[in-house]
Write a structure and sequence with these properties.
single chain; 238 residues; alpha/beta; Spore Coat Polysaccharide Biosynthesis Protein SpsA, Chain A; eight-stranded mixed beta sheet; three-stranded mixed beta sheet
Length: 238
């Protein structure tokens, strides 16, 4: 029997769209015969989301040993990977707490066999695949999107001309499906000598996987909503 773990790193300040997020997760459709479980990884300093999570019968864990927001996120994502591996899940589906996923997200992300440049099909366990989540915000932040690394080593957004599947170098992790064969790989972030954030957890994770030859796909058929209230990231404090 195939099992998928739907995992969400969250802190108390990110619970502003909890009801909408939760409603979307509950409506997710899985292939016939699959079993899905919902994990909340709370990185609030006071573990303030335990009651809400347990009320909804979610699996709950609290990770509050880190102080910096990015370090909390890294540890939360790795805790979800560890749990999925320990409990022998086949798939891990990251859904961030400010991302509202469509009900067919998992079904579409699974259905992405595309030809490689050698004419063969990618095996499903050799890839990482993300949906597209346009920003819904008043603060004018850039939209999370698939990006490619150009010849100067700079990430550039891909041009989207239709609902399709693209091979890319960088994706956001807020609506991302990961096969169990990739559970061994860890999230991290990079900081300079003054402890300022240089690269976020999704940038480091994608870069590490690309070095290993893992295929990263960006599926624009899966359109989720990214709901941000107030400041998103302050790189000086993250």
């Amino acid at each position: 029997m195939t099992k998928v773990l739907i995992a969400t790193p969250i802190c108390k300040s990110k619970d502003y769209c909890w009801e909408e997020y939760l409603s979307a997760v509950k409506k997710l459709k899985l292939p016939r015969g699959w079993i899905g479980h919902h994990l909340i990884v709370d990185n609030s300093d006071d573990c303030g989301l335990q009651e809400l999570s347990e009320k909804e019968q979610c699996i709950y864990m609290c990770i509050n040993t880190e102080k910096k927001p990015m370090d909390k996120l890294v540890k939360s994502r790795n805790a979800a990977i560890d749990y999925a591996a320990f409990k022998e899940y086949d798939w891990l589906f990251f859904v961030d707490s400010d991302v509202i996923v469509p009900e067919d997200a998992v079904l579409k992300l699974l259905d992405n066999d595309i030809p490689s440049d050698k004419g063969s099909l990618y095996f499903i366990n050799q890839r990482l695949v993300s949906g597209f989540y346009p920003l819904i915000s008043d603060v004018g932040l850039p939209e999370p999107t698939g990006m490619i690394l150009n010849s100067r080593g700079v990430y550039k957004p891909i041009e989207l001309d239709k609902h399709d599947i693209y091979e890319v170098d960088l994706i956001g992790m807020g609506c991302c499906l990961i096969h169990k064969d990739l559970f061994v790989h860890r999230f991290r972030c990079e900081r300079d000598k003054n402890d300022f954030l240089i690269k976020s957890e999704d940038m480091c994770y994608c870069a590490d996987l690309k070095k290993l030859g893992v295929i990263i796909l960006f599926d624009t058929r899966v359109i989720a909503k990214h709901k941000i209230v107030g400041e998103h990231w302050d790189y000086d404090t993250a």
